[in-house]
Specification:
CATH class of the largest domain: Mainly Beta
Distance between the termini: 74 Å
Structural class: mainly beta
Number of domains: 2
CATH architecture of the largest domain: Beta Barrel
Shape: globular
Oligomer: single chain
CATH topology of the largest domain: Maltoporin, Chain A
CATH superfamily of the largest domain: TonB-dependent receptor, beta-barrel domain
Strand content: over 45%
Largest sheet: 22 strands, antiparallel, barrel
Number of strands: 52
Helix content: under 10%
Length: about 800
């Protein structure tokens, strides 16, 4: 009998030991549409893990049993204390729901720490909720919303500049596909702000998955549909302008609808954006002082779950832009303006398959088509004079371009060797085409006494076709040496057929948490990045020749060209000083070399006018451009209850180049013997925004403050030749303060958000033009005062 009970005790002890043995848990985090959720923080039994791009995570638990799981990710509702039985013999699936824009929700901002070691990229992120809450100027426009991110500026013409770079030095993506205009390299796509789920701006150090931009990548991610029908409508009541009489003012109606196609299997999200503008330019004769236009945009995003592990995504975007009197300004009357008609059609298809064991593969195809028609008011010669411009603009053109792109991206299973490795690999290929048709007339340059200084004519029209193809491959190893230290090593290769250059881009970064609490992260890295080749540059030698008294001006592509290159060094410290307050300090240094520039082989002085007599000759495409940017940024951010939050940042920076950027597309870049400030350089910038609750229920106040150095400008002689150093002078300090008050109301079961406010509430001048011709009338006077604007907005959120 004793032996019998001894055997029972031994078996019981062995069973208890087996029950208490560690269990390795494999799981995935997905959203309501079964799509994987990246960088979600999973917490159970005091153990933390973060999901990889496949949504997978692995953790070790002290035995089998019932455990309470919590999952958090910014932009998703937090999952708290979800009890799941863990046996160690199967994979668990955790579902978190993405945030839909609501008013004063208690759970919009998940408690996700931005100091996670797994995040090694240098990134700024805006959610769709933040974009819609903040009262920035032109709040209907997605491009304008980007200035909510430190390091992003818009110049006087509305061009976008990230960390001191030109607009065409950035890659723009929509749901993983390139939507950059292949002609100019700019962002021409229009999207409704209500349809944007997030915008992620990565600069300095980021995955080698991204290239074709030395300054970084802006990834725009749009909303998905769900099994519930959602709809919104904004600014559906037109406004009125009371300046110099009452008339229909700017009107920005937008609408969105999303829901199921087949419940549980397929969903859609469609957003429509429309802009009617009627802008008054002060200082011009009545009846010749306005320019108007209409922009329409529609994006349809669809998701089909073919199987639980196989998801198909599709997008269809249409952009239409019709503008009258483009170029109207205080020094540019109606006759000098043009009508512009732009179109963009984009369609994409992406297949995503999960194979288990942390392996996911996605591949896709997209077609993008652009067209641009520019028509001046007449055929008279265009005239540059110290008093401004006159005559008719000299460019009459039609341009079309297409891009066919394919991509593949594989996330391979993790493996262990001196830590955990997660390897990604992939590539993309583009086929580009560009057709140009130009019928320029000509222009004259007049002096201070109205005397003719030079005349340039374009006697023969030009019609041409340019094609190109690109191929890129990359590999990335995310190496977790411990829970507090991660290293990423990557390599990218870019090949361009027309330049015939194979460019290599090594990337290396680290992320380290020096404190056991995990409340601090130190991250840094080094990367080499390259710019793409833009088709307008390749088409320049096939374009019209300019004839002046100095001779014929022509263009040629030089030999032995390479892709423009930038070396980036970054380091940053993120510190969580309380449960919801985060402080960040960053340093970024970018050195650009081998930039493209058409340079006059016969020399000539630097000039701000297009092709004056002194610079006629043969312009050859070279790699002589140099760009230099460095910045230190400090920021603090606090997330309050619900969608309420505030952010403040200060950036000290310096952006210089040896290439003169001129306002005319046909003007070649001219190389300086020194580095001068670029026209959008802003050495000091303080940026802050907030969305805060008021003491009264369902009331909120939002604010936006942007204080920065004035942009630089040059002083020129009557011939356009620069006096002194380039960009030696500056506009006055620019100060914008916008305030708005919003209230949620319910009318017959429908929820509305009503907002009233004022942009530039202090009435700061913030000029956009200057008379910079020495000896001219009004020399040194600033023009184009911004003025104060009162705004109102009505948003419908449905029932």
């Amino acid at each position: 009998m004793a032996a019998h009970w001894g055997c029972v005790l031994i078996l019981f002890a062995l069973g208890a030991r087996l029950c208490l043995a560690d269990v390795t848990l494999h799981g995935r985090v997905v959203d309501e549409n079964d799509a994987p959720v990246l960088e979600a923080r999973v917490v159970v039994a005091g153990v933390e893990a973060q999901t990889d791009p496949t949504g997978a995570f692995t953790m070790t638990l002290p035995g089998a049993g019932d455990f309470s799981f919590s999952v958090a990710r910014e932009g998703y509702y937090a999952l708290k204390d979800q009890v799941v039985h863990v046996s160690g013999d199967h994979q668990i699936i955790l579902l978190i729901n993405s945030v839909r824009e609501v008013f004063q929700s208690q759970n919009v901002n998940a408690e996700t720490s931005p100091v996670d070691v797994a995040q090694s990229q240098n990134q700024e992120r805006l959610t769709g909720t933040e974009v819609n809450d903040m009262p920035f100027a032109n709040s209907h426009n997605l491009r304008s919303s980007m200035q909510l991110m430190p390091g992003v500026l818009l110049d006087q013409s509305g061009a976008l500049h990230v960390d001191g770079a030109s607009e065409n030095q950035l890659l723009y993506q929509l749901n993983g596909f390139n939507i950059t205009n292949p002609i100019s390299g700019g962002l021409h796509a229009e999207l409704a702000v209500e349809g944007v789920r997030s915008m992620e701006l990565s600069t300095g150090r980021y995955s080698p998955e991204f290239g074709k931009g030395t300054a970084g990548v802006l990834a725009i991610n749009t909303e998905n549909g769900t099994d519930q029908l959602h709809y919104t409508a904004t600014d559906f009541v037109p406004g009125f302008n009371v300046q110099q009489g009452v008339r229909l003012g700017n009107w920005y109606p937008r609408a969105g609808i999303s829901g199921p196609i087949v419940a549980g299997r397929a969903w859609f999200a469609d957003t429509f954006d429309s802009e009617y503008t009627d802008t008054l330019v002060t200082g011009l004769p009545k009846g010749e002082d306005t320019h108007s236009g209409w922009i329409g945009s529609n994006l349809l995003h669809v998701q089909f779950n073919l199987r639980p592990s196989n998801i198909l995504f599709a997008d269809f975007l249409v952009n239409i832009n019709n503008q009258n009197h483009v170029g109207l300004g205080p020094l540019s009357p109606l006759s000098t303006t043009s009508s512009v008609h732009e179109r963009q059609y984009f369609v994409s298809l992406k297949d995503q398959t999960y194979f288990g064991h942390g392996m996911l593969v996605e591949f896709g195809y997209a077609h993008d088509a652009f067209s641009d028609r520019q028509t001046p008011q007449g055929t008279s010669l265009y005239i540059f004079s110290p008093e401004g411009t006159s005559g008719n603009y000299f460019v009459n053109s039609r341009q079309t371009a297409t891009r066919d792109q394919g991509m593949a991206h594989a996330y391979l299973p993790q493996f262990r060797f001196l830590g955990t490795h997660r390897v990604e690999a992939g590539g993309d290929g583009d086929v580009l085409g560009y057709d140009g048709n130009f019928h320029r007339t000509g222009y004259e340059v007049l002096g201070l006494s109205n005397q003719l200084l030079s005349e340039t004519l374009f006697p023969a029209p030009a019609t041409f076709h340019v094609s190109n193809s690109e191929l890129s491959l990359f590999v990335l190893d995310t190496w977790s040496l411990s829970k507090r230290l991660q290293v990423t090593l990557g390599l990218r290769q870019d090949w361009d057929r027309r330049i015939d250059d194979m460019a290599w881009s090594p990337r290396a970064a680290f992320s380290w948490s020096p404190l056991a609490s995990g409340h601090m992260r130190i991250a840094g890295g080094y990367s080499v990045t390259h710019d793409a080749v833009w088709l307008d540059m390749l088409g320049q030698p096939l374009d019209q020749e300019a004839v002046s008294s100095a001779g014929v001006t022509s263009f040629a592509i030089g030999r032995g060209l390479v892709l423009p290159r930038a070396a980036n060094w970054t380091v940053g410290v993120d510190h969580q000083i309380s449960s919801r307050v985060y402080v960040t300090a960053k340093y970024l240094r970018r050195r650009g070399t081998d930039g493209f520039a058409y340079v006059n082989q016969e020399g000539g002085p630097a000039s701000l006018l297009p092709l004056p007599d002194e610079t006629a000759g043969i312009y050859q495409l070279t790699n002589l451009r140099r760009d230099d940017y460095s910045a230190v940024q400090l920021s603090v951010r606090q997330k309050l209850v619900g969608q309420f939050e505030w952010m403040a940042s200060y950036t000290r920076s310096r952006a210089t180049s040896n290439a003169i950027a001129t306002p005319d597309l046909i003007t070649p870049l001219q190389i300086l013997p020194y580095l001068a400030p670029v026209p959008w350089d802003a050495p000091n910038r303080f940026l802050a925004w907030a969305y805060l609750p008021l003491p009264w229920k369902k009331w909120a106040v939002s604010g936006f403050l942007d204080l920065r150095s004035g942009f630089p400008y040059s002083v020129e002689e009557q011939t356009g030749v620069i006096v002194g150093s380039f960009d030696q002078y500056r506009y006055p300090v620019n100060f914008d303060l916008n305030i708005a008050i919003e209230r949620m109301v319910v009318f017959r079961g429908y929820r509305f958000a009503l907002r009233v406010g004022a942009d530039n509430i202090t009435g700061q001048a913030n000029p956009t033009a200057v008379n910079n011709v020495v000896g001219g009338p009004g020399f040194g006077h600033f023009l184009g005062d911004e003025g104060r604007h009162f705004v109102a907005r009505i948003r419908l959120f449905g029932r």
